Sequence to fold (348 residues):
Amino acid sequence: MKKLLALLLTAVMVAGLFTACAKEEATGTTTDTATTDSATTADDTATTDSASTDDGKIVIGFSQIGAESGWRTAETDSVIAAADADPNIELIFSDAQQKQENQIKAIRNFIAQEVDVIALAPVVESGWETVLGEAKEAGIPVVLLDRGIVTEDESLYVTFMGSDFIVEGELAAQYIIDKFGEDAEVNIVELQGTVGASAATDRMTGFASAIAGLSGYEIIKSQTGDFTRSKGKEVMEAFLKSDGEMIDVVYAHNDDMALGAIQAIEEYGLVPGVDIIIVSIDGVVGAFEAIADGKMNCTVECTPLLGPGLMEVAQTLVDGGTVERWIKSNDRVFADEAAVEELPNRVY
Ligand code: AHR
Fold:
């Protein structure tokens, strides 16, 4: 029995030492779930480590969706860089690998670690009441980053930082309407983002409402490509197989799917950007390059550079201040020549 106890004690000490070393390696950022099964690792962290710092640092637990797109990676980089640049901040980063259950586990771990602020990029809109209720109960403010949630209890988060996805959908539609004219007959295929994500739902709504009064405009096919390049290509291949020459426009909910669609169109033997007009959302550098190459037509910007703002918000909240309910990003539309001119200025 004594031997068993001694063994257990040693195991706990080694685990504690390992966690402490991992924390020191990064300059203010701890990655607890980057590559492995986040659920398991996140659970381990909660029981072996407490994030509260004695040095007065603000500890932010950030539950990120994953790394499905260039945009997502740029957002992760922005948050980590801003935390690393601020000596007053310690960031605990958790990658949910596209699973809501992993995000819920990560949030519970942040609560157990007594972080000062929780930042959540929610993979889907619904199903957050219980866990965010637990964060509220623990007195930890929650900041929604880039995607929103649907809840009747507005007190579950203090602010939403990000873009207006409905407006983005409207702007994408407006580009097409300006290009073809209101009286044209236009067959559109839509590559949707992740089902249940606010970015997908709202971009669909905004686009549909903008073309609603135009009788010649029809969305002939609409399917999820999950915000990834590979699925965007796969779904576009299926659209081309069934509707080929009928398609006038691809409306993709993000640039990665549009870039996948471009590949599919080329392989099919049509000219993307010419035979089929391509409009999407995000404003990643790859989209600007595709526009410069004449293979794409328009991208609606949606900035992922939310890191510095998040650090400011965290500081304000810890200081007992108040923040706006929606800290809205200022985004622009880049099409054709204007996009080519902008290309050298892009930072993500
Ligand atoms: O929530 C923002 C969206 O999520 C971006 O448009 C997309 O690229 C990302 O995956």
